[in-house]
From TrEMBL:
Binds 2 heme groups per subunit. Keywords: Heme, Iron, Metal-binding, Oxidoreductase, Periplasm, Peroxidase, Signal. The lineage of its organism: Bacteria, Pseudomonadati, Pseudomonadota, Gammaproteobacteria, Nevskiales. The keyword Glycoprotein does not apply. It is found in: Periplasm. PANTHER family: BLL6722 PROTEIN, CYTOCHROME C PEROXIDASE-RELATED. This is Cytochrome c peroxidase.
Amino acid sequence: MPALPYPAASESLRELGRRLFFERRLSFNNAMSCAICHVPEEGFGTHTSRTAVGLEGHLLPRNAPTLLNIAWRPRLFHDGRESSLADQAWLPLLNPLEMGNPSISHVLEMLGADPEYQKAFQAIFGSKQPTMSQVGEALQAFERSLVAAGSRFDLWKYRGQASALTPVERTGFDLFQGKALCSSCHVVGKDDAVFTDDRYHVTGAFLREASPAAAGSSSDEMATSPVEIELAAFVQAVRSDLGRYEITMDPADRYAFRTASLRNVELTAPYMHDGSLLTLEAVVEYYDRGGDAVPNKSPLIRPLHLTAEERAALVAFLKTLSSPAAAALPTRLRAIP
């Protein structure tokens, strides 16, 4: 990974951020914390649902992105709406469907009334009463510390350990760089690799309109039983997600989403902004067939005509991008009192 463009935060600030990250009282009903959607044991995302689940079980429209190596991302969220982790932290805190706090003051007053938090903010910032920027700064410090590099791929590509990858995995990398076109967006550099161009592309994956029948029957069928009819009233309608367009209002950005880094990708299922692809095999098959039909789709997304052996080799290569640090982080972070 390339060097970070800012100095490391103090240990005390990172620790305060860690406590805040796991703090359920940061939600209005004292049930949700950052770690509920960004689960350390699940690659700092979540495996249990296609999209994140918010306050009181409300289904959110997008998959919870991993926080591993988030320090290298210049833009945040699937649509790139924010550039600062410190500022980003407040968006879910104040979103009525996520953590549901009615105001900034509500959060700050809760923290300021807790003796342990008073002590921590006093020691770091010189005041017992936290500010909005200080809370964001602490969460940012912790999230920037979630570094998981040093994969088998790195040993092979950048440290010259030829035996770090198997012949099949090396074939997968050749496909990644060549026939499969993966590196067009998931960039591999000469000296390091972040596996993303941090740009926005229309890949053809987006949420479509869903009828109430999506709860259990085909959208082409009419609910015929009383149970289906009653349940239909409680199903949340799913709308097409316009992606980056919702931020820029530029027609060229309609259905465009930020390229995700592929580091630790084996650990961060499900995939795509809507969690619609559950396995790496499904992702490779999706791109092999050229994605789904959508206006303005990137010209890079086209049928690849991969063989079954080539698809398997690509998946094998993607699994070499997992870092041993990613597996160790959850135990270490939860062990701290």
